[in-house]
RNA sequence: GGCGGCGUAGCCAAGUGGUAAGGCAGCGGUCUGCAAAAUCGCUAUCAUCGGUUCAAAUCCGGUCGCCGCCUCCA
């Protein structure tokens, strides 16, 4: 099955044909490190990770770049609102640089817990200010920028297909619906390339530029960094669905204005939101769920990954504690079944089922990442009595290179001495058929968070 | 106002023209001293109305409800 993706740009599923055969260049919009990532953000990074793994599964070499946005960005172009980094710094009484470092580390910790592979290249915006300035110079040279009110703006009227990604009809947009309108703009859809006029005079993060001391607009960093690491034109750009109308629209406008070629990026893939019953999760509205909270409630981070794998990346996923509990149980059960297979490895495959499952799997994942169906296939495969446990484990291992659920890993949990002692007593009592006593010990063990499971070969102790 | 999308069992969800995947929960059986774990089996006509078609959850139109975006957002 050929690899196909849904391309936001064409609104169709398309066969993936990289610019260079056998090699893909991919850029993913990363986090702004001014606060913890919430589980909605993390869903998008899980989507990126699945995309990575599916590309690699197809034997394609991958250059994956992700940015870390550590430059403060205002909530609007009109010098209104707060600088997010600065707000974070004030909130925690730290410097903006400390804030960036702290939340960057927190982000890396989260993605590691979720078994998200690190991109080949991770790059910080503040390390690439020169690249941004250079690209902005090109945009200015190509006549697509103007200077007004102390800021350098991008002139969207110079782009005949502005808004093509989101199919924006510029005249129908309601500007100023939620933010102040910037009087310096020639067109409502114009945006800032470089700020010099900021109401934050004591700003730590500022750099010299041909337009004066200041800092870059938001959209330019992705263009500049992707261009540095992947070349002027490349294959795939990903991000959350919210980036389509503004961030990615403006990236395309800038990049194509700077390089003078189209298309800048061939395939655009966007991950849908994780939503709560009251709508999406948002950092600015205060309340949001972090991975740490899930862990504190006793959930395995990979159970959250499992939850995300159960829904297609282009569909909203409804998060609730009930759904989380279901995913947690489902993940535990799945691992239990697999560890059961490991106890008794038998090899047989009468009906060539192995190749059947591998083909079906590749069909699902290559069809625009249909991970939910691939996961259903795994369940079917494990239950298939035409296949030996050895084959099942083999296939599971193969599938798990894409799922990333650590299905074959058994976590080593140390069983405390007192639990071991109780287990011995329980086994002894049970041997003597003193079931009242042995059940009492079993209850005591359960209260300590461990569970006794009996089998032909005697009892085992599992952590609850 | 414009744009994008959704409504499938108690819950999370796949399926987008050929007669409803999978998981969780629940119920019943096997196993077990009893449990647990494992295992087998059972449980929906797809918001609603109308149309197209031999055939629709899937296509078209209406209605109701919901969500996202329109310069902070994953």
Secondary-structure map with pairings?
Layout: E1 4-7, E2 12-15, E3 23-28, H1 39-57, E4 61-68, H2 84-92, H3 96-113, E5 121-124, H4 129-141, E6 145-148, E7 151-154, E8 191-195, E9 215-216, H5 220-230, E10 234-240, H6 244-259, E11 265-271, E12 274-276, E13 279-280, H7 291-296, H8 301-309, E14 317-318, H9 321-343, H10 353-366, H11 371-383, H12 389-403, H13 417-431, H14 435-447, E15 450-455, E16 458-463
Parallel strand pairs: 3-4, 3-10, 4-5, 10-11, 12-14
Antiparallel strand pairs: 1-2, 6-7, 7-8, 8-9, 12-13, 15-16
The protein binds one RNA strand of 74 nucleotides through α1, α6, β13, β14 and α9.
Note down, in words, how this protein is organized.
- It is a single chain.
- The chain is α/β, with parallel strands linked by helices and 464 residues long.
- It is 42% helix and 16% strand.
- It has 14 helices and 16 strands.
- A hairpin with a 2-residue loop joins strand 12 (274-276) and strand 13.
- The model has no long low-confidence stretch (mean pLDDT 88).
- The protein binds one RNA strand of 74 nucleotides through helix 1, helix 6, strand 13, strand 14 and helix 9.
Q: Would you tell me which CATH topology of the largest domain applies?
A: Rossmann fold
Radius of gyration: 26 Å
Proportion of residues in helical segments: 40-55%
State the order of secondary-structure elements, H for helix, E for strand. Answer: EEEHEHHEHEEEEHEHEEEHHEHHHHHHEE
Integer average pLDDT: 88
Number of domains: 3
**How many strands, which pairing sense, and closed or not: the largest β-sheet?**
5 strands, parallel
CATH homologous superfamily descriptor of the largest domain: HUPs
Helix-and-strand structural type? alpha/beta
Number of helices: 14
Per CATH, the architecture of the largest domain is 3-Layer(aba) Sandwich
The largest sheet has its strands arranged as 5-4-3-10-11
- Tell me the overall shape: elongated
């Amino acid at each position: 099955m050929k690899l196909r993706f849904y391309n936001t740009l064409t609104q169709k599923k398309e066969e993936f044909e990289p610019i260079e055969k056998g090699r893909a260049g991919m850029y993913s919009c990363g986090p702004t490190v001014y606060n913890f990532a919430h589980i909605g953000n993390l869903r998008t990074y899980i989507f990126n990770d699945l995309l990575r793994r599916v590309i690699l599964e197809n034997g394609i070499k991958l250059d994956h770049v992700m940015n870390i946005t550590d430059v403060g960005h205002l909530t609007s172009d009109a010098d209104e609102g707060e600088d997010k980094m600065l707000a974070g710094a004030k909130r925690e009484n730290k410097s903006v640089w400390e804030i960036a470092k702290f939340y960057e580390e927190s982000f890396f910790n989260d993605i590691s817990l979720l078994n998200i592979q690190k991109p080949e290249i991770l790059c910080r915006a503040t390390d690439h200010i020169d690249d941004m300035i250079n690209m902005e110079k090109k945009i200015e040279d190509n006549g697509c920028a103007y200077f007004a009110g102390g800021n350098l703006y991008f002139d969207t009227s110079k782009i005949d297909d502005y808004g093509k990604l989101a199919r924006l009809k510029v005249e129908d947009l309601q500007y100023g619906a939620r933010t102040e309108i910037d009087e310096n703009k020639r067109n409502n859809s114009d945006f800032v390339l470089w700020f010099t006029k900021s109401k934050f005079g004591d700003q730590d993060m500022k750099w010299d530029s041909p337009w004066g001391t200041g800092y870059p607009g938001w959209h330019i960093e992705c263009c500049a960094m992707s261009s540095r690491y992947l070349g002027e034109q490349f294959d795939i750009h990903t991000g959350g669905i919210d980036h389509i109308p503004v961030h990615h629209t403006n990236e395309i406008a800038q990049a194509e204005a700077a390089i003078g070629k189209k298309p800048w990026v061939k395939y655009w893939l966007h991950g849908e939101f994780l939503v709560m019953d009251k709508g999406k999760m948002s950092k600015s509205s205060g309340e949001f769920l972090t991975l740490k909270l899930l862990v504190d409630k006793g959930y395995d981070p990979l159970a959250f990954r499992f939850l995300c794998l159960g829904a297609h990346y282009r569909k909203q996923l409804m998060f609730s504690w009930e759904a989380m509990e279901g995913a947690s149980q489902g993940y535990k059960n799945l691992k239990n079944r697999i560890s059961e297979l490991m106890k008794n490895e038998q090899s047989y495959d009468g009906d060539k089922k192995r190749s059947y499952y591998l083909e079906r799997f590749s069909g699902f994942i290559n069809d625009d990442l249909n991970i939910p169906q691939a996961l259903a296939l795994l369940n079917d495969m494990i239950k298939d009595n035409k296949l030996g446990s050895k084959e099942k484990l083999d296939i599971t291992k193969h599938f798990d290179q894409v799922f990333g659920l650590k299905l074959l890993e058994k976590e080593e949990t140390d069983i405390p001495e007192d639990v071991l002692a109780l287990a011995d007593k329980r086994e002894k009592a049970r041997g003597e058929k003193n079931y009242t006593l042995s059940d009492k010990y079993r209850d005591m063990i359960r209260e300590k968070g461990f569970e006794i499971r009996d089998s032909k070969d005697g009892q085992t102790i599992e952590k609850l």
